[in-house]
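If it is no trouble, can you show me the amino acids of a protein and the tokens describing how it folds?
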Amino acid sequence: MMTPPTLLAHLLVLLVLPPFLMGVINRTKAWWAGRKGAPFSQPWRDLARLVRKQPVYSNTTTILFRLGPLVVLATTGLTGLMVPLVAKSAPLVFSFDFVTLAYLWGLGRVAMMLAALDTGSAFEGMGASREATFAAVLEPAFFLAMGALASATSATSLSQLLALTTSRTSTAVVLVACVVAIFVVLQVEGARVPVDDPNTHLELTMIHEVMILDHAGPELAALQYSAAMKVTLCAGMIAALLWPGALELHPAVIGAGHVGIMLLLAVVVGCVESLMARVRMLDVPQYILVGVVAAAVALLATLGGGAL
């Protein structure tokens, strides 16, 4: 059970950090391009600007179009309570909670796809089709990684799975492979380069962005905030794996370590997006398979390493 200060810190990080991480990514990309870049708080300013705008609805849309962003935000926010961000444990812990997390994200994805299809736009329908295809390829990467961690830790909840200790070579292989797999999940779920490009305006190459072309105002802010929150949650999973969870440290030190690693991961994402071009649409499944293979290697390492 989390103490009230720790719970408050978790909620604060969950709600405040996502746009700030986007600011770190954008600032890193600006540094690589030789520019000063926007302030770290610029994503917050962009969200505030969107919230003040009045959305415009097409005559072809129904209630599905308006509910889509709300479902995405609600499901993503709920999963934020299942990922440890500032402590060894999350506020909401139960057996096989990682399955609930995956399918809550899936529910949000379906709601976003239905909202895109509700517009009657061929472009948005194309984006929904791509989203469904790539999500089907990505799902094995996540569950294989969770299965590997479950085999290595003999645990069933996400917080316990991420508390993996590298006492043997086989567990070190599991750790590195799972980090690679979750990093690919971060790029896909967060609509980041090289899988997708949040800054592109060419419909033929967009995935996530093409599905939200008709959204504006607070609804667009909800979708952008949800994407940033998914990046934060995936970064939180990686931070929990990399931070020595077995060590008995002060809660403030654990929280600072988690946040620090998440900020470093945002810098890594910015470097990857600066040094790597967006892959061709036909090559996106092959790129996602990197995460699937990494997760499979992690699972095989647990089987070959004996009792861990």
Summary: Residues 21 and 263 are 7 Å apart (CA to CA). The chain has a mean pLDDT of 92.
